[in-house]
Structures are given as C-alpha cells and as structure tokens.
Write a structure and sequence with these properties.
The protein has 1 helix and 11 strands. The chain is an alpha+beta fold. The protein is globular, with a radius of gyration of 21 Å.
Amino acid sequence: MSDETPAMRVSTRTVSTLLMAFLIAASPSSPSASAGATGAPPPDDTDGAHWSWPLAGPRLVLEPYRAPAHEYGAGHRGVDLGASVGAVVSAPADGTVAFRGTVVDRPILTIEHANGLVTTFEPLRSPLVPGDVVVSGEEIGFVDVGGHTSPGALHLGVRRNGDYVNPMLFFGEVPRAVLLPCCLAR
C-alpha cells in the first residue's frame, strides 16, 4: 500500500507531464529550439515580409536545422534543400554579396541582409562578386557539387548578429510551440 493520496498522484502526474513537455519544447531538435547556440532570438515581425524561396519547384527539405547544444557543439546549422545540379538559386531577400569563393571543397556565396542577417549558400556556383547588390528573387547562381550535401542538394544557413538560426523561420514554415493544459483530475 502506498501512503499517497489521490490528490498527490494527480499532482505528481501533472508535474511530470509539464516537465516532459518543457524538455521536448526546449530540445535542440524541436522546431521551437530554433535559436542559435548562444540563444539568439528567432526573427519577429519587424524583419518584414517572409523571404522568397530560393529554388523553383516544390519545397523539399532533405536535412532540417538542428541547433547545437553549445557554440562548438554538433548540430546542423542550416537546412539542406532538395534540388538538382545546375538548378537556379535566387536571393531570398535584398542584400549585398559579402563573400564568394571556395572553402575546402565547395563553392560558397554569402549575402548580408538588413537587421544583422547573413545567408550562406553551398555548394553554389555564382558569377557575383563581393559588393554586388541583389534583390529578392534575383538569380544569384546555380547549385553545384561539393561539401556535406548529396549531389544536387543546396545547404542554406542563416546567421543573425553572428548566431545561427533556423532558416525556415524566415519562410513561415516553423510553427511555434504551444503548451496545452493537461492531466486534469478524473
């Protein structure tokens, strides 16, 4: 026999369920854990309208964003998008090309946007050079091969004030976590 009263059992169950919901919502693989390793907040409505999708055709995310547990921890600091080698890539928002070059074995293009935002595309073959101004929807290059993605996939990373954030937040694709009441006494 247990010395627990029915009220204590309900209370324990409620606390356990709430703790589990909190841990799931805060886990690095959950959509709500979209902040960077240092806790950068996700974008809000002050960033303007949603960005335009950088590829034509259906939106296919092959590998989602996974925030690292800490600044140097394992994670996936961007999303890998399904495409084909040679597919046209467009700027998701207005900006200025900050870098174009090869890093290790992959061609990369980086664009600086308003509000401390920076996008990186890889592998991307591009004729643009640092200083070129681009507008949302403008062609910026073509999907190439190299890097950690499978041939034809495009990696898109977004940093806000130096911290990686989930790129899908800018395309209106990540629902916010909502905690619901649970475990009411029966």
